[in-house]
Amino acid sequence: MDIRYSASPMDAKHYDTDKLRQEFLVETLFVPNQVQCTYSHVDRMVVLGIEPVSQPLVLGDFLEPKHFGTDYFLMRRELGIINIGGSGSVSVDQQSYQLNHFDGLYVGQGAQELCFKSDDANLPAKFYAVSSPAHCHYPNQFISQKMAKKVQAGQAENSNQRVINQYIHPDVLPTCQLSMGLTQLASGSVWNTMPAHTHERRMEVYLYLDLSDENIVFHYMGEPTQTRHIIVQNEQVVISPSWSIHSGCGTSNYSFIWAMAGENQTFDDMDHVLPNQMR
Disulfide: which of 84, 185, 200, 225 matches 253 by Cβ 3.0-4.6 Å? Predict the structure, then answer.
């Protein structure tokens, strides 16, 4: 388990490129037949990359209860999953859910046995999962991309036309605090979220995907008047504290999965920052 501690904005503005990447970037998310886990002390968010290829992967084999001070991983946590690879299945306490590409699953607090499988070892599933603390149980629920709430945002003339697919959201299903979704940029659009904003009441995690090997995203972060950037490649994650803007500009269009946890689940509870206010 890779543990990341909270960073003060007063300290972060002095970080160089290597330090920024060390603190906020998850460079390797998927490893065949492994569970990759990053535990962020920012709102206690846990980020998981699960890639079963030649064998099923049981979550409890990789996550030790001592890391969370509980008897098992989801004893006081909830979990959101989106499959970004080939088709596969997730078994939750003996109940199996089939997840094809961009299908999602919400797993409520209290689930004990989670097993992940790929249907085809030549095209393995890649289960991206995030977990936040939870105070009670809500039912497990499968969410396909079609079932997600669709929000059209941005304009082509501003290079930020996109569709926001809200998978784990109060308008779709109840959760304790976790929110999660997939945003897809239209061809020719490269900006996600501009004007930028902060979430003083929620942190956010970004997984960038659908990038070819030759393309990258410049992920902008930092306080609005102390901006920094991290160069991100395909299937890499950026942890964004509540005090930081989170905006990106790519060398092509791309997709990203966002996940949030914090004081509320109000999607539009954000503090906008106009471009001419940024430094």
Answer: 185
